[in-house]
Amino acid sequence: MDSYLYWILTAIGLVIVELLTGTFFLLVLGIAATGGAALAYLGYPLGAQAGFATVIAVLGVFWVSRYRAKVSKDTGINAIDVGHRVTLDSWINEAEGLARVRYRGTLWDAKVVGERGSGTTFYIRGVDGSTLHIAPERA
Questions:
Q1: Which of 29, 36, 105, 114 could form a disulfide with 49 if both were Cys (CB 3.0 to 4.6 A apart)?
Q2: Euclidean distance between CA atoms 126 and 133, whole angstroms
C-alpha cells in the first residue's frame, strides 16, 4: 500500500474520533495528516511528509488553543444564559441575597449582585456552577 494511503486513513480516523469528542484538536491533527498525505502523493520523502504534518499540527493546535481561550474569556462558558429573565420564587437568605428563581421551567439557586430592587423579575448576569448571579436590571 502506498504511504499516502496510510496518511489518509490516519486522517479519516482522527476526524471520526473528532466528531465524537468535539474538541477541534483532533480535526487539526486530521488536517495535518492530510497535508502529509499530499506530500506523500507528490513523492516527497517520509521526513518531509512528517515535518510538514508536524508544522501544520503545531500551528493548528496553537491556533485552536488561542481561539478557545479567547472565546471562553469573551463569552464565558454559560454566556447563552446571560441576559435572560428569571422570576423570584422565594428567598433562601434575603440578608445575603440568596434566592430560588424559576428559569427554564425549574428552580435554580441564585445570588443577587448589586441592589436587590423590589420586584420579582431579575436578569442573569453570570453563572457560577449551578448558581445564577442575578440583578434587577439587564446588563
A1: 36
A2: 5
